[in-house]
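Supplementary Text 2. Reproducibility record for the structural model of the 304-residue chain.

All settings were left at their defaults, and a single model was retained for analysis rather than an ensemble. We include the record here because the model underlies the residue-level annotations in Supplementary Table 4.
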Amino acid sequence: MTTTLLQPGQIEAAAGSIPELRLPPADLFLMRARRLEQLAEGHAMGAYLRFAAQLARAQQERLNAGPAGELPSPERLAQCFEYLMPPLAPAGLARPAGWRDTARQLAKTVQPLLTAAGQAALQPVVEGADAWLDEQATWLLDIDTQHLNAAVTPVIGAALQVHWTHLARQLDPALVARPEHPNLCPVRGAHPVSSVVRIGGAENGLRYLHCTLCSAEWHVVRAKCSNCDNTRGIAHYHLEGGNRVVDAESCPECQSYLKVIHQDKDPLADPVADDLASLTLDLLMDEVDFVRSGVNWYLMQGHS
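Retained model, structure tokens:
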């Protein structure tokens, strides 16, 4: 008798129809804030995680207020679908009106939580000219860490996330094409912050990559490098004594890694919050010479 072995993608497909694209929920930033507050308890980075939680709460308030921004025309969306292009790619979309006001408001909201030095570091966002804010946004979207002002990056990034998440929520998933390169977000066309194994319903046990800008998630099979599609020699690293909610999936082919957040280990796990709270794992991966393929705007390198 012949036995046929199914590959990861075939196993998942056999379970039923796979939701290829998950658009962000209405309470995305509120749930992230709650998770950050939970992770902050007793954590070595507790103060920063609480700062990030307050920033996420401020993001939720701005999202609830309905920030400015309109989707591309139906004709443009249809063209993007036909040619497998991300409809909300920053390079092909005018920066949403009002994003600078959002950045200034977010900075004012979180400033009182910071030390005098921290408050001073964010003052350029509050007082900065439009051109300066646009410049910082461009460098952030291009991941230009040489020129980025690292102190303001979390707030600049948070403002952009609010507006792009607002736009992404208006899309029809059926009209967003599967990307030509599976490692790029089908909505905005850039790399993810991390991946998350979801629980419940048709998504149970499936892995999704989470976009750092628009918060959309797209399905990629497990046991496969999310950066280069390699399936050989994939290894997972985790911290000893941990709860295994977060591990790092490494690829010997492209020498990169991306974290996997397991909701089956903790249903409240969040692809951004849990990634931020597991910085020690990033240090471990650096020691074994793997390069991170994702980026978390709540904590980025740059000049100070």
